[in-house]
Amino acid sequence: MLETYPINIWINEERFEKLKAANLADMAVDRLGGMKVIQVQCTEEQKDKILKHFPMAKFDTATTKSIELLPREVKDKIFDIAIKLKSIGPDVIDEFFKSLD
Amino acid sequence: MMDFIGHGGKEIKERILSPGEAKKKIKNLVSVEISGRIARECIDLGYGFFTPLEGFMGKADVDSVCKKMSLTDGTIWPIPIVFDISSQEIKEKGIKVGDTIVLTHTGNPLAILEVEEIFSYDKDEMAQAVLGTTDTKHPGVRMIGRMQDTFIGGKVTLVNKPQFNPPFDRFFYTPRQLRKEFKKRGWVRIVAHQTRNVPHTGHEWLMKGAWFCAHGDAPVIGNKDEIKLGTGVLVNCIIGPKRTGDYIDEAILLAHQALHDGRYFRDDVHMVSITCWDMRYAGPKEAIFHAILRTNLGCTHHMFGRDHAGVGDYYGTYDAHRIFDQLPPGSLKIKPVRVLEWWYCPVCAEVTYSGLCGHTKERQKFSGTLIRSIIKDGVKPTRVIMRPEVFDVVMECAEKYGFGSPFCTEEYLLKRNPVFVVPPLG
Ligand SMILES: [Zn+2]
């Protein structure tokens, strides 16, 4: 399987309800006091495209191997697309880039 | 008089000239423009925040503080309070011992300094003694490193009062004003909370737990629903230099007030205030300094959590707890309240104390980094880790004061409204 790189998205109670409706609740990992995280996966190519498109973002090479510091609006949009597609796979990021055009 | 006894058993005195006296006094004096840190320390000295200090330290006191953690008279004091200046400026302006000079900030006179001593001190030695390191990755080391090559010791008197801008103005109390406030509220025990943080519920419970400790053996006065408590938490936000990525000052201050306004603390047990101080991040020694500062504010207790005033890995998690055991008995009037860790436990289903909850596998520790990433993403946290009122205020502050961000950005550092201004001497 090809390696993928996650974007962490915070899930509060309100978002968790939406995840449940999209049958994605199992994907959420409990982190702190009911705050959960889902990880939307990017391929290597998508990762590079994101880092190029959003220069403020950073790829945490050392520890989590995740894409960090994306603007809030971007993450909000990615979350909405994940719900719409009922997926947290690379198809979400493809759709996200389509929505930018 | 008894109400105004500060650290070292000395009365807290304000050293401020009236505008009339000030104008006469500063006429024809040589003036020196001072940095933000020195301006903040002049304010602290002038209002008695640093009692028993009346001015910047001379060489003997600096040396004694570095080597023995006390002033030359034996009073415990952990951090040198020094006025630095370049030898070139001293030469150019012909400043000599016996002179009085006027200190200006942003162009306006703030204080006068009586030049009692001009001396040099090895800055590496100072850093090593106070911070335990000369590593320039330590922000306190960098701060000492940035100081000029010469020091002036001598008494400081304010010739002008700083004007605090909103929203800071209503939270600034001098030590004497604060003690009057405590008296008005009927507070006999006051436990200080040192902060540079937006409070999550871990902080809230740190404060609540420390309140229990301070209040524990207090007599019950009054009946049923009208019990007079007489114990309060003083949240004392530290106002000093900021770095990008820190929470903006306005958010810290107003978020703490939001806990009050949201009734997570009763009106009669909690108040928020500010003090100007440039953190040295000296860990245990800074903890002692904080204890002294809050003694002067009139507090009877001071809470210390894990890694108090530390940075990086320079100090052990509980070094700031242990140092109080090394002080000679009676050298501090304030009592340390030493707190381990509050965490969230999904089994207990609450924020609970590491010293009580045994679910060490399941427990979820509060982490500044996690909370910051939640806030950065603007996702409202669950109320069990951050009160919705606190989150809302932080987001409002981002818009109102932070140029869209609750964290300091270059833009904020450049364009923010200053915490205080020194007005022209009118
Ligand atoms: Zn538990």
Short description, anyone?
The complex is a heterodimer of chains A (101) and B (426). Chain A contains four helices and five strands.
Descriptive overview:
The complex is a heterodimer of chains A (101) and B (426). Chain A has four helices and five strands; from the N terminus they run βαββαββαα. Chain A has 101 residues and is an alpha+beta fold. Chain A has one domain. Chain B has 426 residues and is of the alpha/beta class. Helix content of chain B is 32%, strand content 18%. Chain B has helices at 19-26, 36-47, 59-68, 87-93, 123-131, 139-145, 175-185, 201-215, 249-261, 284-297, 319-322, 368-376, 388-400, 410-415; strands spanning 31-33, 55-56, 83-85, 100-105, 108-114, 117-119, 150-158, 163-164, 189-195, 231-239, 270-276, 301-304, 335-338, 342-345, 350-353, 364-365, 420-421. In chain B, the strands form four sheets. In chain B, strands 1, 2, 3, 4, 5, 6 and 7 form a seven-stranded mixed sheet that branches. A five-stranded parallel sheet of chain B has the order 11-10-9-12-13, sandwiched between helices. The longest helix of chain B is centred in the middle third of the chain and has 15 residues, at 201-215. Chain B is globular. Chains A and B meet through β1, α1, β2 and α3 of A and α12 of B. Zinc ion binds at residues 345, 347-348, 352, 357, 359 of chain B.
